Amino acid sequence: MHDRVLSSEPLVRSNRLAARYPGASVPAISSITFAVESGQRVALLGPNGGGKSTLFRVLTEELAPSSGELEIGVAHAALVPQSERSRLDYPVSALDVALMGSVSRLPWWRRPSRADRAMARESLRRVGLEGEANTTFGELSGGQRQRVLVARALVQDSPLLLLDEPFAGIDVPSAELLATLFDELAAEGRGLLMATHDIEQARSWDLVLCCNRVQIAFGDPAEVLTREVIERTYGASLIPLPGDGPLAITPPHHHDHAEDGA
Ligand SMILES: Nc1ncnc2c1ncn2[C@@H]1O[C@H](COP(=O)(O)OP(=O)(O)OP(=O)(O)O)[C@@H](O)[C@H]1O
Ligand SMILES: [Mg+2]
Fold first, then answer.
1. How many Å apart are CA 40 and CA 84, to the nearest integer?
2. Which of 41, 44, 49, 228 could make an SS bond with 195 (beta carbons 3.0 to 4.6 A apart)?
3. What is residue 256's predicted lDDT score, i.e. its pLDDT?
């Protein structure tokens, strides 16, 4: 738990936010009212197709809100996307991928400087990959590639980190390293919004946002994550267990919306 003083201005805040893909008749997400403050770790729960990645697209301004209010208090949010880890076609080193993070905060005419390269190396160190700086991205394991993408987000140097299922399908040592790193980043004052299918992990974070195309709940996990909220969040993808035991969720399938053509 956090005992530091939180700033009162949220990094991001929304009020009854909705967003619709071009050509779609109904919004992919609606009634989203939440905020992330400096130092907070906010878990985003929802079923496959529940709108988690869509919310990230709105927060990175890739997709415009169709209604409601959205205040983004940062110049840009740093995103670790859901799909990019599986792309093996980066013919570049881990250091080059991390360095791509600097492009988002440089004016177009400036090339990455020595300071940017130092920051990329430092970010690779934070994800435990200083020894792999010159390894080709595609040669790394899935967990290592995910850590490189986290390093790239760190190089963006944003106070707001958006993590789209960062633990999905990665090895245990990578997951443990990232879990520790995310706690450290929050303790340093960054705000984190992380999509996850892991309800138990969400219970250990500061706040939880439950979303099944519409917002189901937002607040302290200890208060919010009731059986009723979990049932409404996961709907048909819940497996009812006999008695009052924990609810099981059908294993989420992982697919890549990147080819859907946003
Ligand atoms: N590029 C797109 N164009 C049109 N519709 C889209 C696009 N991407 C997603 N959708 C639709 O928006 C809805 C929400 O999808 P989204 O990818 O945000 O869900 P998600 O919660 O991230 O799911 P998952 O757990 O599978 O990653 C789905 O109905 C999906 O089909
Ligand atoms: Mg998604």
1. 25
2. 44
3. 47
Cα-to-centroid distance, 93 and ligand 1 (Å): 30
Residue 100, SS3 per DSSP: helix
The C-alpha atoms of residue 22 and residue 35 are separated, in whole angstroms, by: 26
Q: Which atom of ligand 1 is nearest to the CA of 261?
A: 1
> From the CA of 5, how far away is ligand 2's center (Å)?
32
Domains located in the chain, CATH noted: 1-77+158-236 (3.40.50.300), 86-157 (no CATH)
pTM to 2 decimals?
A: 0.89
Tens of pLDDT, residues 11-64: 999 999 999 999 999 999 999 999 999 999 999 999 999 999 999 999 999 999
Would you say the CB of residue 262 lies under 6 angstroms from ligand 1?
yes
Q: Do residues 165 and 195 make contact, with C-beta atoms less than 8 angstroms apart? A: yes
Mean pLDDT of 195-213: 96
